Amino acid sequence: MALLTDKVVIVTGAxxxxxxATATVLxxxxxxxxxxxxxxxxxxxxxxxxxxxxxxxIYTRADLASEAAIAGLVEGAVAQFGRIDGAxxxxxIEQKNKPLADLTLEEWDQAIRIDLTAVFLCIKHQVRAMLxxxxxxxxxxxxxxxxxxxxxxxxxxxxxxxxxGLTRAAGADYAAQGIxxxxxxxxxxxxxxxxxxxxxxxxxxxxxxxxxxxxxxxxGEAHEVGEAVAWLLSDAASFMxxxxxxxxxxxxxx
Length: 254
What we know:
The chain is α/β, with parallel strands linked by helices. 46% of the residues lie in helices and 14% in strands.
């Protein structure tokens, strides 16, 4: 069943991993997509793939460190399609794998800027556009590390905890005006980067330990996160707002 027929959806961080897989899923559910990432070639390839499959997608480059670029992304989507119905705020950077006291201020600032402040700015401009056309739905990528912690990821963990708080706050502000804001919390997902790491013999023991933290007995696939996002963006999730929905194979349950 197509959940998103003719809905206009922005996807940030669309070039690879969860973003790319989710864009493919959203297109399969009938969404018309505005894809954004700094990796132009990868997004051009994705647009071609979606179009060849009968879907509709355009690419707009936007540096999410810039509010002007984020505003331009939203304005461009509205100019192209007349409105936006949904957004998947997925772009982000990983942790530096350093103990907190070894982080530089620059490393901290970069993580907060891209993983949290950019999400705030995306929501801000997406909400303004949605209020003008009667509402919509926003999904933010947080993480299972938005609720728990591991060593060596203080800046990432702080940002992802912030994304969950921001999601709840935005949901509280705008639910009555027809805009639902939710977050998806992936566990370990077999993106190309993670798959390469897991395939290294030196990482085998750690990989098995991490897998054991997922009661379902395996790591997730990116398209599985995409299906969760598609549902949250759809009218089928009409009573969901301000929620932090785990898509983690049970990681947070133990």
